[in-house]
Amino acid sequence: MTSKVQVQSVLRRLVTVWADFEGKLNKVDIIDRINRGKISIGEYRDILLNHRQQVVEGSRWIARAASSIEQPYLEQRATFLRHAATEQLDYKMLDEDFVNCGGDIGHISNGQKNIGSEALHAWMFHKASQKNPFDLLGAMFIIEGLGKNFAGNWVKKLEQNLNLKPNQTQFYRYHAEHDDDHIEKLENIMASGILNIAGLADQIVKTAKVTGRLYLLQLEEIGNV
Amino acid sequence: MQDVFITAAGGFLPGEPVSNDDMEEYLGFIHGKASRCGKMILRQNGIQSRHYALDKSGTPNYSNAEMASNAVQQTLNRSRISKANIDFLSAATTQGDMLVPGFASLVHHISGLPPMEIASFQSVCASGMMALKNAFLNVRAGEKRAAISCASEFSSRWFRPGFYEEYLDNSGQTDLSSDAEFLRWTLSDGAGALLLESDLKDDAELSLKLDWIDLCSYADRFDPCMYAGSSSNDIRQVQAWSSYSSPSEASAQGAIMLKQDFDLLYRMFPTWVGHYLSLVENGKITPDEVDYFLPHYSAHSLKQRMIKLLQQTGAMIPENKWFNNLAQIGNTGSASIYLMIEELFRSQSLSDGDRILCFVPESGQCIVSFMQLTAVRRERSK
């Protein structure tokens, strides 16, 4: 078993990576303007349209990662598979929000990834195809941290400034309310013995950093397909 | 490099303690009406008593510099050093009595200290730590032998009705917004001072070795959060109070009021926690070795938000090691950490080798600072 001290150290490093990521995130133009209440409904639709192209791939890369997990980590593989299943239909909420904001379903269903999402997507699949890619826990920490730490504030700001109704912000609201215990889940899986894999702790932290950087790129490149 | 010891501490709290029910008697009723959200804010910040340098008519009994000077005087009275041997004065405040000159000049004048090098620090809560760091480094470098660092706040004068009414009338509003109300019910007056020396006197019973001070600004990513002197804290829309046609026009436009942006405040938490965890991870702070944790907190409820994450990351300092007098003496901003150290010094509870960790976050535009002290206690020689 992995010692509690090892798990705590990785978590400390991840929270530090998160703090740096969050500082940079708030400086991305579109996020800065959400915070200041200065975006239009059209720009909100653009965010949904761009975000959807990443979200729809989410359970794919988690499933790919699961299929790269070998013995003796079968319990952990089951966790990854269950996680992939819960994310599977998330994109539907995004589609509904988009339509409820005046968007066309065909437009969002057939949308392309922006150039930042392409980079993020390629990175995730590259990582997920490696043997026992538990360093992707760092990527999950960043992506799910966005739900827990950011989505709630975004919903509040968007509703205030664009007079949005609940059926126009379902996706971000859902993640604000349901991603709450992501650190606990991470704690459990890290304590399950995987940190005995040589170099994994450092890899988790590095993968979190790269994922954060590419996530910012996705937001910086909204509309650039 | 010299070792640096805090060898004496003093404080000054003006007047009698003021209870929650009596606060508005001192601050005054805005447009003659009792505040509607004061009680809620007091539940949030957990403060039960504080001191004001104003009397019930709103007249000041002391200036800010007089309070600082009183704290300096008490520190000297408790020390074994004469005024003549102090060779450095560092003074901090959020807002001095005069716009010009610097706060340390006024404190120097009133305190009767001899000619010496001085330094003025203006920030919010962290200004006290900035002043302390300057004094610490001067003594540590061997440049000075005995330095006084002090911090003082006279927040209540900002909270009198005249500071809001012109704006409310001009904008057609009847009640203050919560971003202005919060600080009115949170901040109060007081001063603290510490004496820093490189020589540990043989007959000193207790001193605190100052191990290090770590301070970091994250203003690269935040707009002003606790602010006065502009009606907006949107950095792109800031118009300085002094660039209006007159000070009264600035007041009418809401550019004088002291305010707090809560959305921004909550966004600072991950930054503060991240900074703390990096100090733990780098081995600068060892939570298990901390005997006293002195956090400067302005809101009780904010504390609850952090505990779970700190536990998960192995960085939580058990609550029975927390030492904080905010609820009893009020939130005195930059002076607060001085007054906590002063009370701990006075409590006689410190043992030789006790490690003390001080934490002062500043919401002004996001600063975080930590300081580590180690108690050095000797048996009194018979």
Automatic annotation (TrEMBL), chain A:
InterPro entries (UniProt xref): Haem_Oase-like_multi-hlx
Top-rank taxon, per record: Bacteria
Matching Pfam families: Haem_oxygenas_2 (PF14518)
This protein's name: 3-oxoacyl-ACP synthase
TrEMBL record, chain B:
GO biological process terms, semicolon-separated: secondary metabolite biosynthetic process
Family annotation (Gene3D superfamilies): 3.40.47.10
Annotated ranges, domain Beta-ketoacyl synthase-like N-terminal: 42-199
Keywords from the named record: Acyltransferase, Transferase
Domain Beta-ketoacyl-[acyl-carrier-protein] synthase III C-terminal: 283-358
InterPro entries: ACP_syn_III_C, Ketoacyl_synth_N, Thiolase-like
Lineage top rank: taxon: Bacteria
Keyword Acyltransferase recorded: yes
One of the Pfam families matching this protein, by short name: ketoacyl-synt
Name listed for the protein in its UniProt record: 3-oxoacyl-ACP synthase
